[in-house]
Write the structure tokens for this entry.
Amino acid sequence: MDKQIEKKKWTLKRILAVSAISLFTVVIFYNIFFGDHSSKFNADKERITISTVEYEPFQEFIPISGTIQPIKTFYLDVTEGGRVVKKYVEEGSFVEAGDPILKLENAQMTLSLMYNEAQLFQQINNLRGTRLSMEQNRLNLQSQILDLDYQAINQKRIYEMNKKLYDKKLISELEFKQSEDQFIFLQKRKELLIETVKKDSLFRLQQINQLEISVNQMEKNLEATKKQLENLTVKAPINGQLTSLKAEIGESISPGENLGQIDAVDSFKVRAEIDEHYIARINKGQKGEFALSGKTYALVVKKVFPEVNNGRFQVDMIFEGEAPENLRRGQTLHIKLELGELSESVTIPRGGFYQTTGGQWIFVIDKSGDFAVKRKIKLGRQNTQVFEVLEGLEKGEKVITSSYDTFGNAEKIILN
């Protein structure tokens, strides 16, 4: 009788099939729970910028534009009005202090000068007449006093003689009394005349003093009028260039009107506008620099204007040390203005990545160099070349600093 042979359940073929299925299941399970599901982007190394994180001296500064201006400008504001009758120089000319620029004519002021001169001459004549009258009166009174002195002396002699005669009973009492009364009368008359001379002298002195004060005041008025007439000739107050002149022959100019300006050309300053964001960080004495014709020049902040207009404020800067030659008013300079002291910091170069990330994260190259991943960072100060890194990066690491516009939402960059 034939023996039945049992069929094997785990053949080699079946074992291989089960093993393959199990391996596939494990791979699927691992990919689901432990695999890299981040979005990726393939990038060509030649089309991106890879920079190295450095630890180096860092100087924070901002780029600003400044305009050359004269360090000293004088505005030609006329003090007296009039009609322009002559121009001595044209706009753009170089002038020296005291050079005439233009001449005005004012008929009313000329008439005022003539009137003041006439009034002064009349008052001077009054003063002379009063002094002459006073002198004549003084001489007349002195003559009267002298005459009274003479009469009093004679009368005294008569009185003393009559007194002796009266004592001897040689003349009557009436005759004696008449001589005595006449003597006393002449004495009192002399005293009265002397008092009159004193009072008259005081009055005349006061009169002369008032006339002298009046003459002095008129002389001052006349000088002021002459000064006004002199001011009708507008002269250069300083050496410089007449950069503006707004007046033509025959034109009427009002008092206080601005006719132009003169700029000193021996020295210049730089007027710059800065964003109001930095107003609390800009102070007198801060330094800046600019390059011109292959040479670097230094500037220092001389004055900070606190007024803010259209989101910007102004500063004046002067040259520290040598200044460039052949500077021109209105010339523009591109300046690096320092905002802090030089210090050692971790830095990365500026780049297009900042527009996408706002400086909050960056793609960091793996040590293998095959890919880059996102990493959070914190940036601090900056200048036109680099950012200061406060957190997230270390010296020697490499990062992508070019634009991230083509990366989309990728979290991992595969480098080819």
About this structure: The domain at 37-60+343-415 is CATH 2.40.420.20 (conserved putative lor/sdh protein from methanococcus maripaludis s2 fold).
